[in-house]
Amino acid sequence: MADFFLQALAQVSSPAVLLLIVVGVLFGIVGGSIPGFTVTMAILVVFPFTFAMDPVSGVSLMVGVFVGGYSGGIVSGVMLGIPGTPSSITTVYDGYPMAQQGQPGRALGIGVAASFLGTLISVAVLVFFGPLIASFSMNFRPWEITALIVFALTLVAGLSNGALLKGLLAAALGLLITTVGYDRNSNLRFDFGLPALGSGFEILPVMIGIFAFSQLMGNIEKLRDEKHSSKRIDTNVSIPYASILRDMAGQKLNTVRSSLIGSLVGALPGTGGTVANFISYDQAKKFSRHPERFGTGTPDGIVASEASNSAVAGGAFVPTLALGIPGDLPMAIMMGVLILHGITPGPLMFEQNPVLVGAIYASLLIGAVIMVLCQLMLVRWFAKISLIPQQILVPVVLMLCAIGSYALNNNLFDIWVLFAFGILGYLLWKAEVPLTPLILGVVLGNNLERQLFRALELDSSWLTFLTRPLSALFLALAVASVIFSLYQNRKIQRHQRQAEDLAKPSKEPPHAA
Amino acid sequence: MLTLTKDRALALAMLVLVGILLVETGNIRPPTSWQPYGSALFPRILLGVIAVLATLILIRSLLAGAPRRTTPRRTFGEWLALNRTVLALFALFGLYALLLPLIGYLAATLGFLVASLALLLGIDSWRKWAINLAVSFTLAPLVYAIFRFGLKVWLP
Question: Where is each DUF1468 domain found (chain B) (predicted)?
Answer without folding.
Answer: 9-156
